[in-house]
Amino acid sequence: MSLFDENSLPPEPPEAAGPEPIAPQPAAAAMRDLAQDLRAPWGWLDLLLLAVFALAASVLLSLLLGRAFGAFGVKLAQLRASPSKTGLFTILHQVLLFLVLLGYLAAQIRVTFRAPFWRTIGWRALDPGRAPRALRYIAFIAGGFLLAASIQIASVAFGNRAKVPMQTLFQDRRTALLLIMTAVFFAPVIEETIFRGYIYPVVARRFGVVAGVIGTGVIFGLLHAPQLWGGWVQIALLVVVGIVLTSARAATRTVLASYLFHVSYNFFTSFAFLLGSHWLRLIPPGH
Q1: Would 93 be classed as within a structural domain?
Q2: Whole-model pTM?
Q3: Total domain count for the chain?
Q4: Residue 61, pLDDT above cutoff 80
């Protein structure tokens, strides 16, 4: 039986005869909903174990991929000398690491905590409130577009021209296309599950919602820092993106909201890059 199955809760005691009960105040109801939203069965030790597991898995996957490339005749020196092969290695490593981490969390929640995975980790339907649900979906998608446009403008206005490591992934057409597909169709699901679904509830439960939003956003930005090393303004802007995404998660109490923001942000950022590169025609083909 799931820990989050409402049928598993003890029955309410019978009401005593007397005056009609007073309806709960909006503030009390909001506090109750917040407590329910942050009711995750994992804690700080689990976050530490996730970090250790992620580091170990990253090292192991690097070794295994190195052997796999070697089996196809690509030696380490060739791998480092070829931007296209380096990009392919990096993308494969990232995708496999994401899958391993998702499997780790799913196994932990279903086996250790005996709870359904997606709902327990925060993937719930959007509450439509007074507006049609479709309108709320459109609002979050539009918010992602506005966020992407704002970050692009700020990056151009305040960013530096230092070459960042991520630029090596855009030196050939095939790698750039693979990266865009990963950023739009794959990364938002995994990153929202980990950051807004797994990390945010623990931080917010201990330090409060505001600190949880800021702390999770900072963690999100800093863990992407190696890709943008040297582009300090871009790293700071990515922290801002993380805070905005976590704010959407906190306000709606569902990871689905931050996912819609995230996938829209990545889509419009990728679309802008495709337009700027004349649909990748300005980038050399892979080989």
Answers
A1: yes
A2: 0.87
A3: 1
A4: yes
